[in-house]
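Key idea: predict the complex, not the pieces.
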Amino acid sequence: MDDLLREFLTETSESLDVADVELVKFEQDPNNAQILNNIFRLVHTIKGTCGFIGLPRLASLAHAAETLMDRFREGRPVTTDAVGLVLSTIDRIKLLLQHVEETEGSEPEGEDRDLISLLEAMAVAVDAPATPPPAPPPQPAPTLERPLLPGELPLDELDRIFRETKVDPITPPPAAPPAAKAAPPKPAPAMPKADVEAAHGAAQAGEAHGVAAQSIRVHVGVLEQLMTMVSELVLTRNQLMEIARRHDEPEYKVSLQRLSNVTGELQEAVMRTRMQPIGNAWQKLPRIVRDLAQELGKQIELEQVGADTELDRQVLDQIKDPLTHMVRNSADHGLEMPEQRRAAGKSERGLIRLSAYHEGGHVIVEISDDGRGLDVARIKQKALENGLATEAELAKMPDSQVFRFIFHAGLSTAQKVTNVSGRGVGMDVVRSNLESIGGTVDVRSRQGEGSTFVIKIPLTLAIVPALIVRAAGERFALPQSAVEELVRVQAGSDHEITWLNNSPVLGLRDRLLPIVSLGALLGLSPERDGRDEALWERALIVVMKVGHQTFGVVVEAVSHTEEIVVKPMASALRQLPMVSGSTILGDGRVIMILDPAGLAQHAAARGGAAEETSHHGAGRQARASQKRSSLLLFRAGSRDLKAVPLGLVTRIEELEVARIERVNGYPVLQYRGALIPVLYANEEVQRVAAGTQPMLVFADGGRVMGLVVDEIVDIVEAELDLELSPSNMPEVLGAAVLSGQATEILDVAFYVQVAFGERFRHLVRSSERPRLLLVDESPFHRDLLAPMLNGNGYEVTACASGGEALARLGTEDGFDAIVSDVDLPDMDGFALAAAVRGDPRIREVPIIALATAQDRDALERGRAVGFTDCVAKFDRSGLIAALKEFTGRQGIAA
Amino acid sequence: MNAHTPLTKDTAEAAAHDVVQYVTVRIGPQLFGLPIALVHEVFVPESITRVPLAPGEIAGVLNLRGRIVTMVAMRRLLSLPDAEGAPMAVGIEHHGEAFGLIIDEVGEVLSLDAARREANPANLDPRWAQVAAGVHRLSGDLMLILNVDLVLDRAGSAVARQDAGKRAEL
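Result:
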């Protein structure tokens, strides 16, 4: 292919991308002659060059488009159809160009009569109304609305003087791009919005000759080669420095230092040549959004902020697709239809906002919309169906964590699959794409107010600062960006390792971090069984943070930090988890660069006490624990073990006793921006005077409380066989044998009642509270559910069997709903439902079935016999939501 | 601006019309032959870095004059016990990447008539048959022709297999 053609292709495809953007702007702002002129000139240039090079098909197509645009220039009204037509012409031109590129200079067979005739027809159509073209209004001469004061000149006189005075032209702006930048000439015309300007980094505008002289086109391959060579240079420099560290010869140390500095500067300069404004990745978005808006019948505004934020072009390439996908997602799922928006009191025009900015070696890109926000309940339900988490886990999960399930494979919460998105193959691909370049993605959302996706990506992939550590006798590089701090564990120091169910956890200030041995995680050192105290006693821990997950890895030694040159792994090893690349150290040895995201995932899967349980681990657990419950074992007062269901524990904190304050004589604690009551589990619990003491945090509805205990012992999974103890201790629910030891199960609801009952009591007359009939064979579940429902403002009558329930329903009036387990001893839930539906006096009472996942098959049957709804057994928020919906009444807060 | 790079043909195959030159190597008890056109160099593997979680036949990676070379333990690939003596390695390019095959010792260069190449014996261990491209009868010995493409594809696919296995398990 000759140079002329290549040049033409590069320029034209850039022009076309710009034309796309400009046209969409033009559609929104049809009176802007400046934009129209830009587009016209672009199309005109294409036409001219095509004719010159001998591409008649392209030339005639461009000509037809130009003719239509010329009508607009004459002032004919601009219609969406017309712009759509020009856009599809541009698409066709792109298609032809692609063919020209592939075949090195020949146009494909065929012709474009279809489009051309449409264009011509449109040109005639817009002509038809023959409204005289409103002459582009000359800038009306401003007039002064008062008589001139002595010494003042009339405005037109001033104007004349200005015009005649020679000044340096202000446009094009003299601010030249850095010479090193390989970007093609910047466009000169002033854009209405400064932030969109950067999107034109690649634009070739006719009037930019002054600037053109300052930048040149360089083939990307040359830059890549430069980068490779600089990388090698950095490596050699590092090796020399390593040698210099060992020998003490001041003679060449000075030159070496100089070499080192120059290398550093060179590296930086070369990196700069690879930097491109992120706006380049956004360039196609306005067009995509416009097309989507048309297709979906929505009105969408795309706002771009910080398009000139620069990052490495390699990174840029990698995020293009994820970004596009996320914007499409926002347009499709995020934003509501205009009528829904109107109903919700929002403007009909939905807003998608893209913004980018630098933050400490990273670029943060945010994609936000002001749409409906993510549906927590639906995501939870999907997560449950896919076995990503158990009901108990979901119940105690903060929303922010629930939202993250949308990044898991196969989890699309879209109600229907559109041809835009909703197949559930999207967000997980987005996440893995971003993670593959060391980026992270997170989401924030508020129901009804919109969602924001936050992407954090490294500036460059080629050279990264890394911490060199040693584990299992090998050295590894941990990207510095993920390293939070280094902690040396010492007995008696603040940082101590505690054990939860054989998983080590590090207490670091106010957090509990799961920790893993790097060697064991990587499968290089043998798995240590049990608690090898000696190993952990003086452990050196690198605390890492990936997304919102913080964890510690135990290493043998930390050597130093180094700018490492990332070498990709051989393709045979690219699939390996936890390893993202390799590098050559100063001593010539190859070491592996570990992938923090992979480490986080595997660390979570390994540690039972991980802050965020990985979905793999949790899924397996979910299947295994259908009939079992997780219990938190602790000591309070006596040496005997006590336990509460783990599902009821929101967090385990180390309470600094000095932080306990008193209100009304009762101990309270400022906790996460709220004041929560603190109780001691019983009289015998040690009242530590100074230091810390473990505290369990329970949250029930909006009520949060702390329960101080002596010692956290373990987390066990057990089939709970609760024996009610006729003890005179109201806080004890009963006893059970756990891990071969008699254990008291404490009643969380009792504590919540005590904590809030005495201090924060709102008296509610019981007749106003909706009445529920709770039917469940298991006393444990009854005792678990009744106080919870009570706490949510329902008056609960509990019974153990279907027969008892029917008897109650027969003798007592006024139940607002029945909450029933499906498995009942005498008659099952279905029979109960059938009986209720058969009784004319109570047939209207809604029945909500509590079912385990296995019973879900029977759900259809249940609906047929008259269940109103079915809720998973441990889904407390789901139950409350269902009650709210079907009793038509909200519980009255107790 | 042609995006298509021609696929690298097995140059040995192309030249297979009359005489093919082989470098012989010994892996365990067996003599193997590698088409000489594929062998870039012979070196002593030193300071190999283990790659965590890599399949067993990948011995690790090492720095060979600034290039990172992936080392394949041929004994493990052929299900032979690990060697005791100091190994040797044969450097090979495969799809633009550098590999080193760890073998016991390097022999000589033989020029063999391609027409005398025989098919794999039917009773050859399937694991071996997968990487062997035929047999040459030498005086007093048999030389299996090592199909380097298959060897390296197999070494690579092990990762994918392992990964897929893990996924299935979860």
